[in-house]
Each structure stands twice: as C-alpha cells, then as structure tokens.
C-alpha cells in the first residue's frame, strides 16, 4: 500500500486524537516499518490494519466509522495533489463513474506498483450511479468516505446505499442517488 495512505493516517490520528496518541500508537504497535513512512514508498497493508485496530480500541470507535472518517479526511489531500484530474469533472456522478477508466489510469502513471480496487459502472444516470466495488483489502468504508466527500465537494446532497458481498465474491454494490 502506498505510503501516502500511512502518512495521512498518522496525520488523521494526530488531528483527531492528538500527538500523544500517535506517539503511543507507533511505540506500542509492532510495525515492520517501525512507523517510519514515506509518501512514495510502499508498505504492507497489514500495518494499516494494525494502526486502525489500535485507534479503534483506544477510541472505542468502530473500524468502519474510522475508515469512513479517514476517507473524508484524505479527500482534500487527493484533490490538492491531483487537481488536474478533478478539473475534468463538472459533477459528482461523472467523477465517481470515472474512477476506473480515468482516475486509476492516472494513478498508475504516478505509482506503477499501486494495487487499486476496481469500480465497474453498472448503471449511470444524471442523478444516480450504481457501481460494483471490488477490493482485496476491505477498505469499503474508506471508499464511502471518499464518495461522500465527492458529493460535498460538488455541493450536492445524496445517499450512498450498499449491498455487501455482492455476487458472493467480496464485491460491494453501491447505489448513489442525488437528491
């Protein structure tokens, strides 16, 4: 997993729980990297799970809620770093629908070794989108946080409904409906 996720997660923990928790987390978690991350290097996904589990236990906040909140937290970073990609979209539905065939292609140009989930569009209308999200990493709620921030970025209201384990292959079906 790319290091920018780890560096942003540490920033997220610091901003939401303070520097003391970051210090404790990095000291108490058994991490191969020893908690030293560079945005452009890759690290084992298990380290993120370890950090997330630590924060969840210490704060009594479920991993799902933490991941969604973290997704919302990371969105401005992604927009700031990759505004040239986002500028091609004039609405939330088009941006989310463009993840697989445009955004992920651009990400792969920057990070050849990035292991990305897939977002396959099932149905796209002006005010709704149905996509199948497939990932081996279980970051569904992180994706939900990013999608919710996308709606907010474009100043639209909407709901995101989810059908877990769609097709019995671990995929998730999302239906986004604008209001």
Number of helices: 8
Mean pLDDT: 92
What does the largest sheet look like?
4 strands, antiparallel
H-E string: HHHHHHHEEHEE
Q: Give the distance, in angstroms, between the N- and C-terminal Cα atoms.
A: 35 Å
Main β-sheet, spatial strand arrangement: 1-2-4-3
Low-confidence stretches: none
Radius of gyration: 16 Å
Number of strands: 4
Strand content: 15-25%
Q: Give the overall shape, derived from the CA principal axes.
A: globular
Helicity range: 40-55%
Structural class call reads: alpha+beta
In a nutshell, what does this entry contain?
With 179 residues, this protein is α+β, with helices and mostly antiparallel strands.
Describe how the helices and strands are arranged.
Elements (H helix, E strand, L loop, with lengths): L2 H15 L1 H10 L16 H15 L3 H19 L1 H4 L5 H6 L1 H12 L7 E7 L3 E7 L5 H14 L4 E9 L4 E8 L1
Antiparallel strand pairs: 1-2, 2-4, 3-4
Helix pairs in contact: 1-2, 1-4, 4-8
Describe, in plain words, how this protein is organized in 3D.
Helices cover 53% and strands 17% of the residues. With 179 residues, the chain is an alpha+beta fold. A hairpin with a 3-residue loop joins strand 1 and strand 2 (128-134). Helix 1 (3-17) crosses helix 2 (19-28), helix 1 (3-17) crosses helix 4 and helix 4 crosses helix 8 (140-153).
